[in-house]
Structure to design on (415 residues):
């Protein structure tokens, strides 16, 4: 919040760089921002918008799929009210302003009061926007002069005054609105030519087929399959990880040796994170081969809210084989048992253990083979582990090549 205030502050508060410089610069947001403290600012007037009649905000702001939550403005006698006041040749993108409580006079919106030759892209708003007079919109109070809104939506309540109130914009001049929607039931608005009006049913999952047309659900947006994140509305991918966490603390621990063949159960922990969705349950796999596939038999264990410790006995055979390596994994998933809709945790580890020898008979030592195994996790992570085994003691050289066949790193060199 301190960084956001730094952008908006007067020259008296932040003399260097001056306001003209700050309002013509380009910003990225690197985390979600809790703006609830703005309720106490300026004797209850709240947030003071970025930009003025002179100078406008002429920079850019990329939310990088984050949110600004609980922004509060109570300036009923002031015009040009929103997160930004007036913008010119600027771009606001990839940002959610959630649970806003904004009250102004005229030219009022959640993102900006007045936009000229400016773009709003991949943004959305929730909460309440109110203007006493005119030009009040869910995202912007007025947009003119080749301004653009695309791939955005509003589900904030919009309370206009005398005229020109709209679900997305209050007044639209010579400008473009494409693939952008507002909830008529929540906003209280239904206007033509200023965005696409939709009902709650049409805007929430499963969406109406002509809603969210050409939206990027691979990189920018995520569908809210289970109504757990955003009440069924799409949400920005970095706003909330739709993938559950991975399981932790396996028992037997990874690479444990001499495990009893009378092992009764497998155990693991699952620690819920507020930034991630909770799973519907866990698919548990066990095999005596290292390659565990989705086609293998598995056991379903339901997730219990606030429970950390889980166990499974049913997936174990009546008795494990002596001196055998077993591989197992636990896949937290949002898919209900027996359904295919939802997502699994990413980068799920595979754990292993080896059972004890049968002391009643003489067991041969396991025969090793020379083999380079797959690395884990994938190399796009900060660290990865590459395992290999040797049939006999010998010199080893392990090199990493790029796609041009050039050596980029030597990991092992016993030559």
């Amino acid at each position: 919040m301190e960084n956001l205030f730094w952008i908006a502050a007067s020259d008296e508060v932040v003399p260097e760089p001056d306001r003209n410089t700050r309002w013509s610069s380009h910003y990225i947001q690197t985390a979600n921002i809790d703006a609830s403290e703005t309720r106490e600012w300026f004797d209850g007037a709240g947030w003071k918008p970025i930009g003025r009649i002179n100078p406008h905000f002429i920079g850019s702001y990329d939310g990088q799929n984050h949110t600004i939550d609980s922004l509060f403005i109570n300036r009923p006698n002031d015009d040009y009210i929103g997160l930004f006041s007036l913008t010119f040749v600027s771009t606001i993108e990839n940002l959610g302003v959630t649970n806003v409580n904004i009250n102004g006079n005229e030219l009022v919106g959640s993102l900006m009061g007045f936009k000229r030759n400016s773009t709003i892209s991949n943004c959305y708003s929730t909460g309440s926007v109110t203007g006493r007079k005119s030009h009040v919109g869910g995202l912007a109070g007025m947009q003119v002069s080749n301004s653009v809104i695309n791939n955005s939506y509003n589900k904030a309540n919009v309370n206009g005054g005398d005229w020109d109130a709209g679900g997305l914009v209050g007044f639209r001049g010579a400008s473009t609105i494409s693939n952008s929607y507002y909830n008529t039931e929540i906003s209280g608005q239904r206007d033509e030519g200023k965005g696409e009006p939709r009902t709650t049913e049409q805007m929430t999952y499963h969406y109406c087929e002509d809603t969210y047309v050409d939206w990027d659900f691979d990189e920018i947006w995520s569908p809210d399959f289970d109504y757990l994140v955003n009440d069924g509305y799409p949400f920005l991918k970095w706003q909330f990880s739709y993938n559950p966490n991975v399981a932790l603390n396996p028992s037997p621990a990874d690479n444990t040796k001499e495990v009893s063949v009378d092992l009764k159960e497998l155990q693991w922990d699952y620690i819920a994170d507020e930034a991630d969705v909770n799973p519907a349950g866990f698919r548990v796999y066990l095999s005596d081969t290292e390659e565990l596939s989705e086609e293998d038999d598995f056991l379903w264990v339901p997730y219990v809210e606030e429970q950390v410790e889980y166990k499974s006995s049913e997936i174990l055979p009546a008795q494990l084989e002596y001196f055998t390596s077993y591989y197992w994994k636990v896949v937290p998933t949002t898919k209900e048992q027996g359904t295919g809709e939802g997502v699994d945790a990413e980068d799920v580890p595979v754990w292993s253990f080896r059972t004890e020898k049968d002391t009643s008979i003489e067991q041969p030592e396991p025969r090793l083979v020379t083999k380079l195994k797959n690395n884990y996790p994938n190399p796009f992570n900060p660290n990865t582990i590459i395992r290999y085994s040797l049939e006999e003691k010998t010199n080893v050289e392990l090199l990493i090549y790029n796609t041009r066949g050039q050596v980029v790193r030597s990991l092992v060199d016993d030559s």
